[in-house]
Amino acid sequence: MLRQISSTIMKHTVVSQRHLTPEIKLRLITPACPLWTAKEEEVPFKDPFWAFYWPGGQATARYIMDNEKLVKDRNILDIGCGCGAGAIAAAKMGAKRVLANDVDSYATTATQINAELNNIELETNTKNLIGTNCYEFDTILIGDMFYNDEFARELFKWLLELRSNGKTILIGDPGRHGLTEQRRRHIDLLAKYKLPPESCIENHGFTETSLWVIK
Question: In terms of domain of life, where is this protein from (predicted)?
């Protein structure tokens, strides 16, 4: 099954470095791919979020690549890893252990493909880790996960609990409605980035993206 998933991913994506972290190669669906303009019934994947490099993920990976000390020799958990860029950036910058987690097996398979493309070793799993204590990890990466207010409420409550237990929580987000003003009172802005033109086209109007840390 995993071999079939891998083959399908390879067939319908291209290697791209046209994003905020050009030093990381990623297999993505871009305007160069037939699937970019395909009808829904022609797409062989259900909700292929992993096939796009979302703005929050780009902010997370860019900041990590520019701030090695943030992850070096630490145990990193990338929740909702998607294409795996944040996890790959952490591994590149010397993290002790990196686990890329996503409930979608296509995402974890894509992450492994992208890790190999960048000569990086990391772990993946498809367990739902939201709500767990994550005792094995020092730093939690969250990218583009505040897209739904109901889910954001559950997610943020959990992240605050993890922070109270000493975890570092990094949140990459371009300004989605789930990251409300009330929730922003609990976070500090670490960096803001202007997205390259290609990323603006691929991300439906977002022109900037930011990285936050829970206080």
Answer: Eukaryota
Cβ(65)–Cβ(118) below 8 Å? no
- pLDDT tens digits, residue range 21-80? 999 999 999 988 888 888 878 888 888 999 999 999 999 999 999 999 999 999 999 999
**β 168-173/208-214 pair status:** antiparallel
By the 10 Å C-beta count (0-12 exposed, 13-18 middle, 19+ buried), 125 is classed as middle
Nearest alpha-carbon partner for 53 in 24, 22, 88, 28: 28
Q: What is the rounded CA–CA span in Å between residue 79 and residue 98?
A: 11
Pick the closest to residue 26 from 79, 76, 80, 89 (CA basis).
89
